[in-house]
Amino acid sequence: MTWERSHRNESDTVQKHFPPARGAVEVVTYNRCVRSYELTEALSEVPGLDVTIRRGALHIHVPALGDTASLDPDDIVEAADVFVPTQAPAVQLDIRRGREILPLIVTVDDLVFTPSYADDLIAEDAELTVPAMPSLIAYSEMHRDVRALGKAVDSESLDPGMLAATLLAHRCFLRGAIRMGLWPVRVAAWWEYTNSRAPRHIPMRDDSTWDDLLSDVAEARKQTETDIVRGHA
Q1: Cβ-contact 166, 174 below 8 angstroms
Q2: Structure pTM?
Q3: For the chain, first and last CA: distance in Å?
């Protein structure tokens, strides 16, 4: 599968190229502001999800990830059944974010989304190599990559410039997940761990949402420590 996006600051267009063996792609779309019942109906085609509408918001819980995407149905402009390389059921939601339309692909055990732009995260006067960014990243890939770097930072001699660039890329992944209504506390915990051991810190713009996520990371760590103490009592 290959993915292409339009130029920045224009509506994102995702082109899907699937294996020829699958034949023609059957797509079911809703070319308007999608109603809540249509969203739950479309997502019901993907097994293993916990999809609910609560207080006017759409919640898509993926047990394999331990996270939930919480979205305003009014921001979803299209829902489409798509085929993915695993040939498992999948639904793509096109979500309005400012001037952009961004995809969220919901699969049986994963969520795929667009990373945030590095330019939107780093401080304006920062001098930092910006790494090449994938058009789309799966939540499971994000978690795997961020955790792997966290495990490597203490055991390997990493180039400070490369480490800083990789941390930036990973933060773009995380910010992209947040933009899709996710709250990746466990992944952010690994990022914070690695960042605290990096010899070079990334100058970032103020981001209250990111600060809230790291506050939840700190609270989760505190709760884990409490549980360990209770377990040994």
Answers
A1: no
A2: 0.84
A3: 52
